[in-house]
Amino acid sequence: MAQVQLRSVVKKYGSLEVVHGIDLDIADNEFVVLVGPSGCGKSTTLRMIAGLEAISGGEIAIGERVVNDLPPRHRNISMVFQNYALYPHMTVRENLGFSLKIANRPQSEIDRAVEEAANILSLSDYMDRKPGALSGGQRQRVAMGRAIVRHPEVFLFDEPLSNLDAKLRTQMRTEIKKLHQKVQSTIVYVTHDQVEAMTLADRIVIMRDGHIEQVGTPLEVFENPVNTFVATFIGSPPMNLLPATITNGEVAIENGPSVALPSAFEGKVREGQAVILGFRADNLMPRGHSLPMEGQHAAFDMKVNLSEPLGTETLLFSSLAGREVQAKMLNPRPVSPGETLPFQLDLTRCHLFDAASEASLR
Amino acid sequence: MNENLKHRIKARILKALHLVALFIAMAIICVPGLWIVLNSFRPTVEIMAKPPVWIPSELNLDNYRAMFGAVGEGGVPVVQYFTNSLIISVTSTVIAILVGMAGGYAFARYRFKGKAGIFIGLMLTRAVPGVSLSLPLFIVMAKTGLIDTHVGLILVYVALNVPFTIWLIDGFFRQVPIELAEAAEIDGCTRWQAFWKVEFPVARAGIASAGIFAFLTSWNEYALASQLTRSTFSKTMPVGLRDFTSEFTINWGGMCALAVLMIIPALILTFIVQKHLIAGLTFGGVKG
């Protein structure tokens, strides 16, 4: 069993506190992704789990063991680094077998484990090459192979795909997901790419400025963001946010139209409260090019400033109440800039955030 | 004429000029060395002839024979000088490299108080002309009884070389990504194992080149050695060259013969270590 537990973990550099007492429970075999903008403390958190950074307060447990002061080699973890950190003076075979050799395992066992890892990651053809003679994707696979050879309790990934080109990144993403199904072990994965987080994670941990903002399954954080930060960070394009006021039981968009109060928020707002109305591009579509909106919805006309055809749909950039909002058009037809279209907003999918605290009012 | 042909001819002419210029430069650099080798094989008459004789009429090993011969017949204790040089150079190089590795690693990897100041201080010692040290060194060595000993000269050469080896090795360790050691630690190494099994082999090329520089400095040094050595017990080869000068004459042939014996080990060493000097050893381990 290899659950990972963080209890009020703090990291300070001198007087500067970068991680402010975070709590996190990671279950056995769970794939957890830490995501957030650069400088949010996600890599530091990962390095503290690895034992590469000392923790300044709190407690980290792997399995049942508190590992606060154990060096990395006693934590039974393995890690894939952003720049791979392959040993340049060793062949692929030696790189893969290094950890077992250090542990003084018999050669026959090392050979077997290396062979097994090479097969899982289709590395068998490059076993006698040095890392310098490999492509980026191959190096990435060697780095993963080095991690799985030892059958650790926990895998740590530190932005492993950020040095690959877009196509390879998608491919390796799938391989990591498959790998997790094959080797069945706990994975903590750090990325700043919300698409990676959404596609890979069992649970996403969204961090900002050394705090955890929200923890949840990809759908939970997408459907029910706890605040405007999560709302704009998760999902592409980011959620549209418009300042509004609750007036006469309706949501009056600043300098714009009023829409009915979404029924999910009835009784949760008070008259005159300053709020932020949030909705995704998927829920704002031109009439005739939208999903059927059978529930509560609003309708208004908007001028289209710019359109980005994506094939199956077109992304529309329009102005509403003096702010740019993004909408989607299904079964697209060409749209010329400046054209005015009748839009429908699905109110059942809208969010309201408190204007002052930016927290969700749901 | 075809425009492409014109450019092709121009490129070829430039290439030829380039080679000729390189040849001339190399010739200028190599002539003194070749002249020494040539002189070691011929009699003084021909060496001193004016205008200089470039094509020797006769080559023989007389100078070498005399040098290894009995004292009084032009012989000098070559083997003893060679042994002294070897002991002093090798020992001081090994010490300078060990200290340089420890220091270079510390400067490259750790943060400590006064780091920049200490580093600048070390570099400033390089700015002191070696000769200006000769009198103070002489007094210190005389007081401590280290004049005319191997230990004395070894200490001096270690002191001369350490700032340089620290600076050079620091640069090489900086190029070794810190993630390599971290990956090794996660793979089960102690800090010490991570250094010897990963960081040291990756930086080996740089350490070897620092070693060559330190060795050649000690091997070739003349000014300080001539002050601090007295007898055959500790004289190094460069100092031994002076045995060929007497009150009224200089035995140029003998001097050249000993100089050739000095050059050979340095050349051999450089050739051996050369393969470790191949740059780019650290490439490929990181990034895509």
Automatic annotation (TrEMBL), chain A:
Biological process (GO) annotations?
carbohydrate transport
Which leading EC class covers this enzyme? hydrolase
State any single GO MF term.
ATP binding
Is Nucleotide-binding tagged as a keyword?
A: yes
Any idea of its EC number? 3.6.3.20
What SUPFAM superfamilies would the database entry show? Answer: MOP-like, P-loop containing nucleoside triphosphate hydrolases
Describe the location of the ABC transporter domain by residue ranges: 4-234
List, alphabetically, the PROSITE patterns matched.
ABC_TRANSPORTER_1, ABC_TRANSPORTER_2
Keywords of the record = ATP-binding, Hydrolase, Nucleotide-binding, Transport
One GO CC term on file: ATP-binding cassette (ABC) transporter complex, substrate-binding subunit-containing
Q: Sorted alphabetically, which CDD domains does this protein's record hold?
A: ABC_MalK_N
Family matches, as NCBIfam families: PRK11650.1 (NF008653)
Family affiliation: Belongs to the ABC transporter superfamily.
Protein name (Swiss-Prot/TrEMBL): sn-glycerol-3-phosphate import ATP-binding protein UgpC
From TrEMBL, chain B:
Question: Any keyword Membrane?
Answer: yes
Q: Name one GO cellular component term.
A: plasma membrane
Its BP terms in the Gene Ontology are: transmembrane transport
The protein's topology relative to the membrane is:
Multi-pass membrane protein
**Which positions, given as ranges, span the membrane?**
16-38, 86-107, 119-139, 151-169, 201-219, 250-273
- Keyword entries, A-Z: Cell membrane, Membrane, Sugar transport, Transmembrane, Transmembrane helix, Transport
Q: Which segments constitute the ABC transmembrane type-1 domain?
A: 82-273
> CDD domains of this UniProt entry?
TM_PBP2
List localization entries.
Cell membrane
Question: Which family does the record claim for this protein?
Answer: Belongs to the binding-protein-dependent transport system permease family. MalFG subfamily.
Q: What does this protein do?
A: Part of the ABC transporter complex MalEFGK involved in maltose/maltodextrin import. Probably responsible for the translocation of the substrate across the membrane.
Q: Which PANTHER family match?
A: MALTOSE TRANSPORT SYSTEM PERMEASE-RELATED, MALTOSE_MALTODEXTRIN TRANSPORT SYSTEM PERMEASE PROTEIN MALG
* The protein's name: Maltose/maltodextrin transport system permease protein MalG
Q: Which organism is it from?
A: Pseudoruegeria aquimaris
